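Researcher: Please translate sequence to structure tokens.
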Amino acid sequence: MIGISLCLIVKNEEEVLARCLESVKAAVDEIVIVDTGSTDSTKAIAARYTNCVHDFEWIDDFAAARNFAFGKATSSHILWLDADDVFLEEDLQKLLALKSTLPPDTDAVSMHYHLARDEYGNVTSSLRRNRLVNRMRGFRWIGAVHEYLQVIGTPIAADIAVTHASLRHDGDRNLRIYERRLGHGEAFGPRDLYYYANELNDHARYEQAIAYYSRFLQTGEGWVEDNIAACGKISDCYAALGVKELTLEYALRSFKYGSPRPDACCRIGYWHLQEGNYATAAYWYEAAANAPKLDQAWSLQNMSCSTWLPHLQLCVCYDKLGDYATAYAHNERARAYRPDDASVLHNKSYLEAVLKLPGASPATSGSIHEEVSL
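Model: Translation complete:
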């Protein structure tokens, strides 16, 4: 059986730290907490779980702090989390099973990272991260912001999920770090160009975001998944700015880097739906619904685009085309994911009345619920 050191870097996490540690303590042999300047009770809470609490002077560099934490670990393998992450009970049991069966010479294990769920418990945003690594391999963290763990070789892909359960978030922190670095005259490489553009996009600074996404793509050195995502994000920026033609152009441009992804298909479908091109919109939403599932995807996945959303949009498209039976079938598929959704229930009632299905009530209005964007 392998040993596991859990490593976290923390600052002012008194609201969530105990929850995180309680969720995983049964599976780890050592807990290493590195505090980067807490002014609340974070360190006192950490001390209830471990004697390995260390201070690290914050230098605007997440990789440096994580590497410091990794350097304090003593078990054969290192597991890393953030304080607002948790293992749900089923995932804790899977982690315990993995611990007892994993060959000791395993270099790394990747796990799902579930970033968001809807009110029905469906995962809506997910990706994979290298979570458990062999300490003796000396893998290092790279990048001051949006850091990544550089793992050599192919990790084992485990069917285990870490769930992000944030209660609050300093939405300006990463942007401040990037802009301080720019202010010091630092030249960004492709990865930082991409993630700085993301921060600008998140702060509705769309023109600047487009400029930095474009600079990222122009390097020709980006990770293919980031290239695909950048095209989609530029499309969304142009949509927010009301530039319709470039909204479509950049959604299509993502195909230069790989096969059509569900979110790109939904963007294109929505563009045609707004133009009243219902048959064309239906084609693209069908493509989104039927795209191969990327279970091992390392890139961020908007799960709505491959589950309920294209079916809800197809309901709209086929209603507009007068194919009410197909519209109803797609609405039912959306209802399987979102059984109490007001739009889905409205459409159900409306279409049952149109189709004169047994037990149907009179429609509450004369049309389908309007479509929703990506």
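Researcher: Any highlights?
Model: Residues 224-241 form the longest helix (18 residues).
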